[in-house]
Amino acid sequence: MSTMPELAEVELARRIWATAEGESISSITSNKDARIFRDLPAAALPALVGKTMTSSTHHGKRMYFTFDHDWHLEVHLGMSGKVYCAPPDYEERKHDHLILRTPSYTLVLNDYRMFGRVMLHEGDSPWESLPPSPLSRRFNQAHVRSIIERRPKKILKGALLDQSLFPGVGNWMADEICWRLGALPDIALGSLSPERLYEEVKFVCKGAIKHVADKNQDRIAPPEEAGFAAGGYVAQVPPTTWLFQHRWKKGGLCPTCHCELERGTIATRTTAWCPQCQTAYPKK
Ligand SMILES: [Zn+2]
User: Fold this and answer.
1) Distance from the CA of 266 to the center of ligand 1, in angstroms?
2) Does residue 27 form part of some domain?
3) For range 62-80, the mean pLDDT
């Protein structure tokens, strides 16, 4: 089962590099010509040498690694980005575009297609100026109400995939949310109650963290090399009571009513839904 990096996969990837929290950077190797550095001022990275990773966080599909409290390295996995935490004697491989070495670990970003991105910020926490993450306290019912009220005609699935509205929600999570709402994915946002939308977005986001990030923790423990790849295999996935396990399979059945799921392209993405449980008039 392969998954594009959505909020929970990104959180899992963050935890892999967070293994090196408390360690200081002894050297940095970067391929400056790599497209992943397109937004980073040239020669900015060596500023991190000698600095200690003090904390890290994720926001939507971005990871932030903070050094000496006010230097923030932002990493996006893109389509093919992989992060590894390897032993200190790790030897560079093809497509390793960024390697941070600490006394105990080697942190590697490998990306052969280079849709990923690396940036460096100094000063205030850059994620605070971003739209609220569905996992944060700023993401509350009033916020969801304002999302709906400002875009009542926007298609539900398209809205859920919009990173400025629901950062971190990707294709499978959007389908899961529509299914839990009992709403067809192409109905207008205005047909939903803010309370229900808030509830189901929170449920799926929190559940994804629990079932994907928390339960795959064992993959991230050094000294064995551990890594996570965008589109990579995750051993632990949400339970069979979620749409997740059924939406990939041809002939997959709805876990609630057991009728066959339908598939189509909505908001440019392959979408699965239950023709019986999901309607144009979801319960408010
Ligand atoms: Zn159903």
Assistant:
1) 19
2) yes
3) 93
